[in-house]
Design goal:
Elements lengths: L1 E5 L5 H14 L10 H9 L6 E7 L2 E13 L3 E11 L8 H15 L4 E4 L6 H9 L15 H17 L1
Parallel strand pairs: 4-5
Antiparallel strand pairs: 1-2, 2-3, 3-4
Length: 165
């Protein structure tokens, strides 16, 4: 039996494990540096930065969806799906669709205009899956990121510019 449920603080070790499994699948095992302490504070502390659904099949953890609110200046409230992952041994049993449809239902319940996520360009199986659900691949958009030293340098440049003003 498939069960989709909201994660609890007791699930933090499982969430971290699933994140690392996803990172390995995405060929980036060293990139997942999140700690259980961060996950606990950010997902279950006084200021929540994410929410998480756990998929279980016959009581066994099989996957997760991690999402959070964002805002579109064009359309308003939205949700961003950071991760959707099924353990390989559970694929093909409808868990990914069950997780995604639950996140979509949450978006609708919260009057969100849209649900956004990224998909790796080499993951044709996922792209095909999302297209079957009427998701649109945004070919004209590229994701940008600043992190680590570059983030600190950018922040310092802004602080320096403010000091001159």
């Amino acid at each position: 039996m498939t069960r989709i449920r909201l994660a609890t603080p007791a699930d933090v070790p499982l969430i971290r494990s699933l994140i690392h499994e996803l990172a390995t699948y995405e060929r980036e095992p060293r990139s997942a540096q999140i700690t259980e302490t961060q996950l606990l504070e950010d997902g279950f502390g006084p200021e929540r930065y994410y929410e998480c659904l756990i998929a279980e099949l016959d009581g066994t953890p099989a996957g997760f969806a991690l999402f959070f609110p964002v805002y579109s200046t064009w359309q308003g409230r939205s949700l961003y799906l950071e991760d959707l992952f099924e353990r390989p041994e559970f694929r093909g049993q409808g868990l990914g669709k069950a997780l995604l449809t639950r996140v979509a239902a949450i978006a609708v319940e919260r009057n969100c205009a849209r649900l956004d996520w990224n998909v790796l360009n080499w993951n044709q199986t996922a792209i095909d899956f999302y297209r079957r659900l009427d998701a649109t691949l945004l070919d004209d958009w590229h994701r940008m990121r600043v992190s680590g030293d570059a983030l600190a340098a950018l922040a310092a440049a802004g602080t320096a510019a403010e000091a001159k003003a």
